[in-house]
Amino acid sequence: MIRFAALLYSLLLLAAPGLAVAGQGPLLTLDEALAIAMHHSPLIREAEAIRDGAREEVKATRADFLPKASAQYGYAQLRDEPFQRIGGVPIVVGDNDVHRWDLSLSQPLFTGFAVTNRHEIAKIGAEIRELERQQQIVTVRQDLRIAWFEALLAARLNLVAEDNFTALTAHRDNAAGFLAQGLNSRNDLLKAEASLANAIQERERARAASEIARSRLGWIMGREIEPGRTLEDFTAVATHSLELQPLYDEARRNSPVLQSYRMGLDSLNHAITLAQSGYYPTIAVTGKYEQNGSDLGAATNDYSNDHNASIALTAKWDFFEWGRTGAVVAKQRYSKQALTERQREAEEQIRLAVKQAWLDLQVAENSIAAAEQGRQQARENWRITDLQYQNQVITSTEVLDSRTLLSQAESNYYRALYGYRIAMARLERALGRK
Q: Distance (Å, rounded) from C-alpha 139 to C-alpha 148?
């Protein structure tokens, strides 16, 4: 009677909807785990740092539009006083000590569109880094959900293994008792003991798998899960009728990866224009104030004016560089061609990921009802078989076969149940959903 009550409790534990099975301590909800991951995931923090660096690059390129101010100071000591010969007579024209400083202000007027395109490239780069951050958020959130349901599945399978161990232990004890009473053969006891030994190994493997699944979940969260902490469980499944083509369209439209490729192509268009800036001259205007003298402040000059100011318009055109500019332009065009091919490959990979997750979703959805029915039938079969063995109507072999069938049916049911949620998380990751 006690053995039957323990077995009934185990079956009810497995069947209870919404029950948290991964631990016995305080409850950890999925929403709490997602919030922890958003704050502690090293992948997200890395992506945020890269994005912030790209934003600083935008500020740096914006400064190229503005005038540049500079200052320079120099000192030289001559061994001999500088002089000129006029009519054969040397005349001193400067001091031995020469101090010079100047202030200048330079403003580019035309750079062949180089400054504008560098700024646009930096802006697009910052947007791409932001998309990469969003992609990391999608990846972390969906990977965490996948790991969450894998941990719940592993915990359920661990309970199935524990229940199987309990049932086979009771059967071994029954077989030993019947043998002692001379009601069955020793062969029945040996079969029961061999099956129990296998159940012990399966239980240990299931325990290890459950611990590994929890550890992986903690790694994705960026924080270790306390031993015994209970994970919020989800057993109710609301299936959805999803068409494949709209999913393709959503992924193509919203996937951060594909958006990054599209922006990358736009950036390379600007890179081509930037490379073509080498075909044009550059024009700048520079204003300068300078002082020359013999003292530290360059304010004393007995031979010429101690200060002066100027404004200059400078144009520079490198019209021949042995084809360097053309080669740089061609390189950027080839880079754009290569990125276009990578974009097509990424689209196909995402398309394949969407289809794979969609098919897994269909398989899991179609399997849940059949697996539930099989589980109920296997439970009834086990109940009847065990009762028949108690009355010595059947042999131990049929009991062990019935128990194996029930364990397999329980495992199949939970694999279908959590497999549906795992497939949905993988589909949403492919679609770029957060």
A: 14
DSSP label of 161: H
Euclidean distance between CA atoms 251 and 158, whole angstroms: 36
pLDDT at 24: 60
Report, as an integer, the average pLDDT of 50-56: 96
Tell me the per-residue pLDDT of 98-136, one tens digit each, with 9 for 90 and over. Answer: 999 999 999 999 998 999 999 999 999 999 999 999 989
| Tokens found for residue 396 | 């131990």
Q: What is the pLDDT of residues 230-282, one digit of tens each?
A: 999 887 777 777 889 999 999 998 888 899 999 999 999 999 999 999 999 99
Q: Per the structure block, which two tokens stand in for 299?
A: 């304010």
d(CA 18, CA 160): 17
- Torsion sign (Cα): 373, 379, 380, 385: positive
Written as six digits, the tokens of 158 are: 């661990």
Cβ(294)–Cβ(98) below 8 Å: yes
169, 171, 393, 396, 400 from 195: Cα distances, Å: 9, 10, 20, 10, 7
Please name the amino acid found at residue 341.
Answer: E
| pLDDT (mean) for 369-375 | 92
pLDDT number for residue 190: 87
Residues 125 and 54: their CA atoms lie apart, in Å, by: 6
Q: H or E segment at 21?
A: none
Q: What phi, psi does 102 have (nearest 5°)? A: -150, 155
Q: What is the per-residue DSSP string for 322-385?
A: TTHHHHHHHHHHHHHHHHHHHHHHHHHHHHHHHHHHHHHHHHHHHHHHHHHHHHHHHHHHHHHH
Q: Are strands 282-293 and 230-231 parallel, antiparallel or unpaired?
A: unpaired
**Which strands make up the sheet holding 307-316, listed edge to edge?**
68-77, 97-110, 282-293, 307-316
| Confidence (pTM) | 0.76
Distance, in Å, from the CA atom of 147 to the CA atom of 341, rounded to the nearest integer, reads: 33
pLDDT tens per residue, range 130-168: 999 998 998 899 999 999 999 999 999 999 999 999 998
**Closest alpha carbon to 144 in 16, 25, 260, 231:** 231
Q: Which of 289, 310, 306 is nearest to 95 (CA)?
A: 306
Q: Are 255 and 261 in contact (CB under 8 A)?
A: no
